[in-house]
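Lines hold sequence, tokenised fold; shown next:
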Amino acid sequence: MLGSFIRHGLTQEQASGEALLQVIAGSDTSAGTLRAVMLNLLTNPPMYRRLQKEIDEGIAAGKISSPIKDAEARQFPYLQAVIREGLRIMPPASGAFFKEVPAAGDVIEGMFIPGGTQIGSSPLGIHRSKKIFGVDADLFRPERWTDATPEKFAEMASTVDLVFHYGKYQCLGRGVALMEFNKIFVEVSGL
């Protein structure tokens, strides 16, 4: 990796920064989500048993390979609910992620924001919104996903997708992270 950075003209300082980013970006954020999900599952036996039952039935029906394939994991609704709820309850990256308003300014929620203004958001605040996730938004409850109407599910899903940001700021490792989550909870379900 370092050799590639050097061949492409990065300075030592730039290469060091990129190397650090590569190590931290995909490991610490995913590990945080894994810890949050495992903590919540292991401290909520009914949720853990429900996930285990879904996995056991998938294995018995021949719907799960060893190791599980990403496409197979996406077919299990409670597993997907657990993953989404884990991303929601403990967003992998929780900084303000400031963005700059374009030079001409912009209108947000009916209010004009001058160009050059830095605007940030709170992932923890967004993903604990009672308006979007219900009065129990502070609780880890995967059932909010399985019980939701299609409209509510879409609203919650588009909000949770923001943990990976959007547009040119979207996390490049999003697909890899989701694949890891789809695989690991099935593979360690024998805990």
Notes: The radius of gyration is 19 Å. The mean pLDDT is 90.
